[in-house]
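EI: anyone free to look at a 220-residue chain?
SC: sure, send it
EI:
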Amino acid sequence: MGHMRITKFGHACVRVEHEGSVIVLDPGNFTDPAAVDGAGAVLLTHEHADHLHPENLRRTDAPVFTIQAVADAIAAQAPDVSERVTVVRPGEAFTAAGVLVRAVNEKHAVIHPEYDRFDNSGYLLTLPTEGAPATTVFHPGDSLDGPGRPVDVLLLPVSAPWMKVSECVDFARSVGAARNVAIHDAIYSEAGLRIADGHLHRFLDPLGLEYTRLGVGADL
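SC: here you go
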């Protein structure tokens, strides 16, 4: 996979480093602020506090790429950050820290039918590899909608108030990524995560799909 490094930080936050580019996705309130140090760009999938945390954005001067709903939330919560925000539209391709990114999908998973649906954009990163096909990495945010194309690495939500484990398994199988890295894991105890890990291995291993739950600060 070339010189790619994926580092798992708290909860939904992942740092992707590739040939000098550093992109940090969703450094929310369960994330050590150091996750953003050295970032060339920050991508935010949606406005919930476990993904958007103004203090973490203030720690870096990196540009922030996100959807309109999140830009509006930043304007309200942290207007000092707003001048660094670029709004992207669903389906739009853009360059962040020298990396090609596409905004994918539009809505958060259903938390309860009586709530309005929140806006949510996943991000598909394309990381070029010299002499080989590019590596693609997909962060869905809080959604179980795939990118609609094959990906090499899926950042897979494994625990959430809006999800049961069978939905997580089916999402991973439908995307079919060779490598699956657990994210969105702060709300289960270690015992609960071990149970989820067991189910995921049971279903993904026979398909030859790798599943990994990294510790905080650990690299793929």
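EI: Residues 185 and 193 are 7 Å apart (CA to CA).
SC: 👍
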